[in-house]
Amino acid sequence: MSFIQVPKNSHFPIQNLPYGIFSTVQNVGLEPFYSLETFSQPLLTPSPPLLQPSPRVGVAIGDQILDLSVLAAYNFFQQGLPELPHALHIFSKPTLNAYMSLGKSVWSATRKFLQHLLSADVATLRDNTDLRHRAFVPQATARMHLPADIGDYTDFYCSREHATNVGVMFRGKDNALQPNWLHLPVGYHGRASSVVVSGTDIRRPAGQRLVSKENPTPMFAPSARMDFELEMAWLVGPGNELGEPVTIDKAKDHIFGMVVMNDWSARDIQNWEYVPLGPFLGKNFGTTISPWVVTLEALEPFLVNGPAQDPKPLAYLQESGPTAYDVHLEVKIKPAEAQDFHTICRSNLKYMYWSITQQLAHHTINGCNLRTGDLGGTGTLSGPVCQFSPFLCGLDSGTDDSYGSLLELSWSGSKEISIPRSTSTPDDVIKRKFIEDGDSILMTGWCEAPDGSYRVGFGECVGKLLPWRERGHMQG
């Protein structure tokens, strides 16, 4: 238990401590002058506040952010964590890359040190009122930034349920899965430059799409079939050398942690362009990730067995023991004309057919080198449709609301979903097949302790769709 008060259903108890990059109006905690070059102790004479906010590293605890650059400036890490000799330099950076590159042993030691420091029975930080004022920042007053400098982004297609649903729509039940799908984690290279942090608006893209089914000729126009994709993603810690694959038993050592991800999709643009090389303009205009990176160590208590893999994977993809994580996932939508968010999807990461370690091992088996900060998306995480009562199947399945996209929920636009205009008027509904301008999409995920005593969560991944910005010279 921590001396910081943490509400029961908070995503950020002491068992979690996810990392993020944040800034404030002014760097209040760093008012005393210290030398970045010598990592000296702060001078007793305070200097004026810094004029510009500086993005820096923090961990979430309850509704607070613990500013690790402040702890480093006061030599907490130098005194208590010799594994991290240059903490001030690392935790004053505007990305997590420097820290993520240090590897599993340093991450684990840092986590144990922070949990000790935040414990209710440790007085060091608890009883130092001035230092607590400097080191803790209310999350409500902070601005969150992308947690990493993402050099490359690969998106996989690893939910059997999603791949089957899409295959049935476009190829029929007998040819739903492509011949290779059960043998390897299918993926494609996405666009890292358009990965944005939660809270960033996304503008409706335009591109080539077909006029209609009856008139299958291309035209240039804004997408009329905007969609979300419920995904999670992993961030690479230490990379691997070019030509040196990462074996499946070492893959976890190269993954720092995970985030919730919305891979925005323009279905009509994607449908016209994807043959033969895969998605392009239908995907590369915006991908939203949650700001807090939950470490694999924090997720370790929630390891479970994933789906049975039949046929048996090739040797380089074979792994033993639990390899899936029991992460409850939800998607909510708030139409522009609605007052409240409404849940339209519930799924779970544990349903994913190919594990994150299989994804990384497959990515590197040909010698491809991953680098610190690279992002790997899971693909849309649809759950199985329960044939019985939700009470028998669990909270994350039961009806087709376990589908992780509007493409599935509306079955390619053949039916509408109903969204209450407000929680107080459930019968007054708004209809949707795809996302309309002004609609907001909110995704979240969390693990639940078996006794319900705490959650390890990811916070929110939210974005709003803005109208296409018309430019006259692009018509036609």
UniProtKB/TrEMBL annotation:
Segments forming domain Fumarylacetoacetase N-terminal: 53-147
Binding of Ca(2+), residues: 155, 229, 231, 263
Pathway(s) the chain acts in: Amino-acid degradation; L-phenylalanine degradation; acetoacetate and fumarate from L-phenylalanine: step 6/6
NCBIfam families in UniProt: fum_ac_acetase
PANTHER family: FUMARYLACETOACETASE
Binding site for Mg(2+): 263, 283, 287
Family from the record: Belongs to the FAH family.
Cofactor(s) listed in the protein's UniProt record: Mg(2+); Ca(2+)
Enzyme class: hydrolase
Name assigned to this protein: Fumarylacetoacetase
Residues in the signal sequence: none
Catalytic residues as annotated in Swiss-Prot or TrEMBL: 162 (proton acceptor)
Molecular-function GO term, any one: fumarylacetoacetase activity
Single GO BP term: L-phenylalanine catabolic process
Keywords: Calcium, Hydrolase, Magnesium, Metal-binding, Phenylalanine catabolism, Tyrosine catabolism
Residues the entry annotates as binding substrate: 157, 171, 270, 274, 380
Transmembrane feature ranges: none
Domain of life: Eukaryota
EC number annotated for this UniProt entry: 3.7.1.2
